[in-house]
Amino acid sequence: MRHDEQVRLIKQLLAHLDAGTNVDAGGIRRLSTQTYTDPDQAERERRQFFRGLPQCVGMSGDLAEPGAFLTNNDLGIPILAARANDGAFLAFVNSCRHRGAVVETEERGSKRRFTCPFHAWSYDTSGALVGLPKPDHFGDVDTECLGLKPLPAEERHGLLFVHPDPEGVIDLDDLLGEWFNDEFPTWNFDTMIPINHDAYDTPCNWKLAMDTFGETYHFASLHKNTLIETFHGNVQCYDDDADVGGHSHRMILCRRDIDQMRHLPEDQWDITVAGLPVYWIFPNVILMPFRAGAFLVRAYPAEGDPGRHVSRVDFYMKGELANAKGVQAQEIQEMIATIAQNFADIIRDEDYVMSSSQQTAANAGALDHIIFGRNEPALHHYHATFASKLGLEMPELLEGSASQPNRRHL
């Protein structure tokens, strides 16, 4: 993030702290609880948001060397993504061209060849069919036409995107917008190294998972023994690009370290000391760069069950930290491991427990609607965006507009 933008955001956080204020969405908004339970809407979301758009499957560091690969089975089509021998990022339908069996069954690793466990047809890192047993017995086939079926794939800003539709089109200028395409390169995501990968199968709608990353109003209560020790609750910065037809937003959570940093000269101000940036990549990605690396959270709906989803929570370390030696290297590794574990505990054991509680009530039809406060603009933006993309009625605004002096539409 450019330093002048860091200073602008830090000044906003300090102004909120000093005045006892927060961002203002301009009103209270009402949302039907059916958005979390309706099977028809859930199917439309899977078809339009997940099968119809490019999906972030990881970061460049997940495929650091030729032969590195990862698989993904969250989108209704088995995906194999790999770093080819020439360094290109490629993706394929993870299905053998012989009889359709899944070729690569491991979640990630490094291989020169991908071999189908059914009849041992093998493919290289570019997806080409390079071997089949007893070809003289099998019959004459054109191996050049029987490589793994390619999927559209693009690597940008250290993020890996795959379209699950072989005929799909990846337009990252549209998905990320001018704002993120300008700001993401400043974080050097392409140099980050994967540290830990978790998956949480949770009985709540995938949008409830997104909601938990949309406000800090709950920190003082739900996280009273965890996050509130390092963050000021109910204080944040919030920006979106809705005014120019975009669907992106960015929050800045307020760390307690800002209390000491405010006394430093502005040229020493650092947004990762004063806060935690939280980027939302439509529809299901939360990306949070911090002082030592980044968190990447992706929520995937369960097929046929609106009340269940899987969150993939990945942790990455800044590449320069990997060059540390001796005691310093050990201290860095221990710090990263502690951060990763604490983050996992908070999401899984606090946030998602509450999301599951919300889903229980929604499933029971106990409430026909819930409300989002003026201090929860990201939740307004999430659900207004979802409704707009699906052509649904917009969530109802219960109060009129109010001045928003500390919020900027980008």
Mean pLDDT: 93
What Rg is obtained from the alpha carbons, in whole angstroms? Answer: 23 Å
Shape: globular
Write the CATH architecture name of the largest domain. Alpha-Beta Complex
What is the fold named in CATH at topology level of the largest domain? Answer: Naphthalene 1,2-dioxygenase Alpha Subunit, Chain A, domain 1
CATH superfamily of the largest domain: Naphthalene 1,2-dioxygenase Alpha Subunit, Chain A, domain 1
Oligomer: single chain
Distance from first to last alpha carbon: 15 Å
Count of domain modules: 2
Based on DSSP secondary structure assignment, what is the total number of beta strands? 22
User: What is the tally of helical segments?
Assistant: 10
Give the structural class: alpha+beta
User: Order of strands side by side in the largest beta sheet?
Assistant: 13-19-18-17-16-15-14-22
Poorly predicted runs: 401-410
Query: Main sheet, how many strands, which sense, barrel?
Result: 8 strands, mixed
Strand fraction band?
A: 25-35%
